Amino acid sequence: MENSTTGINAAAEILEFTAEESAAAFINKKFIILVSGVAALGGLLFGFDTAIISGAIPYITSYFSLNEYWIGWAVGSILIGCGVGAMLAGKLADKYGRRYMLIICAILFAASGIGAGLSTNLTEFIIFRLIGGLGVGAAAMVSPMYIAEIAPAKWRGRLVACYQLAIVSGILIAYFANFIFDGTGVNNWRWMFASQAAPSLLFFLLLLLVPETPRWLIMKQRNAEAEKILKKVLGNSPVEAEMRIIKDSFHNAKSVSLKQLFSKTYRPVLYLGITVAIFQQVTGINSIIYYAPEIFRETGLDSSSSLMQTIGIGVINILSTIGAIALVDRIGRKKLLLIGTVMMGISLVAVGLCFEYHYYDHYLVLIFMLLYVASFGCTLGAVVWVYLAEIFPNLIRSLALSVATLALWLADFAVTLTFPVMRTHLGTSYTMFCYAALCVVAFVYMLFKVKETKGQSLEDIETLFIH
């Protein structure tokens, strides 16, 4: 119990709650951090499941006899499952609850890792990658939604950003697993995938201890249960006013159809969410996350050295995400998004120039790739999830998040599938220049379209976009 308390206090220090904020919910800080932390573990499995293949690429390429097109499909197939999972999760999360869906995700994560590790042909491997994608896609929308619906407004940005911290932690753990299992023989890739079962079991067990969100309970007219949870969240503050505001936000409606979602009322905020989600991916992050060892090998490094430098990317990803947690509720969402697209674009141009002129000395490729990942982690990586979790009105949040997350996964799939092909036919340098150009487009769009949501309740944010 003492270790648990120490961990909670450490988390509170990272989140940097002020004395005023802590006093407002004196007896609830540990509860809020605990339930948000458990939900954020869905991100850890997300990161692990998607990144574990980075170290396995050369081995599955040989085992399944893959060319550049099949490599893209083997790596990117999980993202098709992600898109389907995201679309299904919205309706299912509304019907059965956010917590129930996260439990299903934990089961899918475990099945995917074990199944992929036991695969004897490419078809089996792809099927289990698709199953893992269902879990990743569902968790990608349900985890931040759970956190956004249970966190106080002043803490919401940092707590949802913790979801991105969990994602990059999962990515780093996957990189370490790849490095550890790399020298274990011909079946090393099987152990890489099967190791996913351990964190999946932990996630499943912890989910049994957390409650449902009060907003979902109110949507289902289970007001007594919702009030009980809100009292735990708000502590000394009265819950009656909060209950009334949440009830009013649903406008006495139980659900919204896909046709209504694309109506004149909701279309602007939906298109904003979709576009921001797409820009998070088409600016190239997962070409680095999934293919970093292959990129480093192109500079002349051996397998072990390339995996070690990839671990450096994972470490920087975590540190920069911690920076995002500290900054997102201080600087705001919009400024971070703009700063991120500029820094990412500069870094990509620098990496492209290194490959264009075959200059690999002084660790310049590694340095600029680390700068790119740090810029992403501190801005688009964390902030986009925060923004998507809070801009949609209560009534449409689940369905709108499903659509926006589907767009995100399709963009991710496009990047993942095309990177090996672009790298083969355009070269690494011009591939990086293409991603840099998309950073410029993202900057211009966000400058004119993104609205600041820092420090506002979900119900207040609704009035920014819905008139």
Automatic annotation (TrEMBL):
The chain crosses the membrane at residues 31-57, 69-88, 100-120, 126-148, 160-181, 193-210, 269-291, 311-329, 336-360, 366-388, 400-422, 428-448. One of its GO terms (biological process) is D-glucose transmembrane transport. Keywords: Cell membrane, Membrane, Sugar transport, Transmembrane, Transmembrane helix, Transport. The keyword Cell membrane applies. It comes from the Bacteria. Residues 35-454 form the Major facilitator superfamily (MFS) profile domain. The keyword Transport applies. This is Sugar porter family MFS transporter. The lineage of its organism: Bacteria, Pseudomonadati, Bacteroidota, Chitinophagia, Chitinophagales.
